[in-house]
């Protein structure tokens, strides 16, 4: 039986905008077992990054967790003060950010930054930390590691900078790595290399991974389970094979339909009509995706849609999935089969 590492229960996050409190994350619930890879997928603005920064308690000053629990290793960390969270961040939970160029300090060498990260979390002398830094660079596939320690971030390619960020993330052998769109700015070949590296590191240090992406194709080979988010809510979740073999929610089906390689014959770049609503304009008490599938009648949607278990461990929000079919429009937008 798998051991539970993380359980998020009914998590809600509010932002103060002017004098108004608006909800960015609405009753988010999911779990993660030790050694498992969970992908959280959705367009920009769907709430993915806010969700994971909540787990690290790194929300901006105008945001707060208004409801729910975050059980990490059986302890609810929501009430934790900053001093307690510092013992968890970097040690037990590490994060790989989307853009390593903004995360790495341009005026310090890669070695200085990696050595500092190691010494913060491990009791090592500077020389010991330098040797450990070289080993980590070698583990993440950077050749001539001792030489590379003396280089600056701008002397590395985008893929190599991301490897450095991964080396920093695994330096303390964390229980959980959160990878926030770590392959977005990389070309397809380097993307594949980074995904393979994360998979190999997961096996080596027996860590769990939460992988954030807007691209279902990227996570198809790495994820054990997938959560689909839209406008601050989970709209579908299940094992990876359930999501790809039996996608149900209209949003999930359109995301899969929008993968370019599945539409090569048409010669058009597929996309989903419309946009994710602004945080202040999220529809309340109805299906949040309804505006983007207007050919589905209002009667097909639930009032205040809930998640329904349609098969074991496979959940979908709203009954509109029962009435959905994809339509295609002249400009390449996709709307049902």
Can you tell me about this structure?
The chain has 337 residues and is α/β, with parallel strands linked by helices. The chain is 29% helix and 26% strand. The chain has a domain of 90 residues. The protein is globular, with a radius of gyration of 21 Å.
Question: Gist?
Answer:
The protein is an alpha/beta fold.
Question: Share of helix among residues?
Answer: 25-40%
**Ends apart, CA distance between termini:** 39 Å
Order of strands across the main sheet: 6-7-8-3-9-10-13-12
User: Which sequence of SSEs, written as H and E, runs from N to C?
Assistant: EEEHEEHEHHHHHEHEHEEHHEEEE
**Rg value:** 21 Å
Oligomer: single chain
Question: Which structural class best describes the helix and strand composition?
Answer: alpha/beta
Low-confidence stretches: none
Number of helices: 11
Mean pLDDT: 89
How many strand segments? 14
**What kind of sheet is the major sheet?**
8 strands, mixed
Q: Rough shape?
A: globular
Proportion of beta-strand residues: 25-35%
Name the features:
single chain; 337 residues; alpha/beta; eight-stranded mixed beta sheet; four-stranded antiparallel beta sheet; 11 helices; 14 strands; 26% strand
Helices and strands, with pairings:
Layout (H helix, E strand, L loop, with lengths): L3 E14 L2 E14 L3 E5 L6 H9 L6 E10 L2 E2 L5 H7 L4 E4 L3 H4 L6 H12 L4 H14 L5 H4 L9 H13 L5 E5 L7 H18 L2 E6 L2 H4 L5 E6 L2 E7 H6 L4 H8 L13 E2 L34 E5 L2 E4 L15 E2 L3
Parallel strand pairs: 3-8, 3-9, 6-7, 7-8, 11-14
Antiparallel strand pairs: 1-2, 1-4, 4-5, 9-10, 10-13, 12-13
Helix pairs in contact: 4-5, 5-7, 7-8
